[in-house]
Amino acid sequence: MQRPIFNKVNQIGMVVKDAEATARRYWDDAGIGPWRFYTIDPVNSSDMKLRGKVIEHSFIAAIASVGDVELELIQPLCGESLYAEHLAQHGEGLHHIEFGVCDFNETMAHFQDKGYKEIQSGRIFDIGTYSYLGTDKGLACITEYGKADEGTVFPPPEKIYPSSK
């Protein structure tokens, strides 16, 4: 039997029209939060590609922990992206599951050998890379994999909801 490619669920990502309003509803209705907000754009991210084409886009990411899994709300702001496409074609809802993997490069090679294509990728906050694979036809959802550079940490959020003040 082959060893598992995935070793953990790290994150569930959803595309939304308004990250702040959705985070507020999650907090008020389900007690999920606090939410950490980041604006991701070409100033703090690089090597952004959509289906192999270099792109520039921006979005708001709001992140909260539910146990040891992150819930990410993604609000597209401008430019071409998988997130903007999803919102236009499907509306708000589940976008991806990010899985932990033992070896990022080995996982990418494995799925490419299986015929899955990388659909969006980039480098975020100069701390690591991310990649979305079009596994939605075979695995019923888009999957994401990331690889943080050794010794790096995510920067502090721009804001937190609800604030701890």
UniProtKB/TrEMBL annotation:
SUPFAM superfamilies: Glyoxalase/Bleomycin resistance protein/Dihydroxybiphenyl dioxygenase. It comes from the Bacteria. Pfam families: Glyoxalase_4 (PF13669). This is VOC family protein. It comes from SAR92 clade bacterium H455.
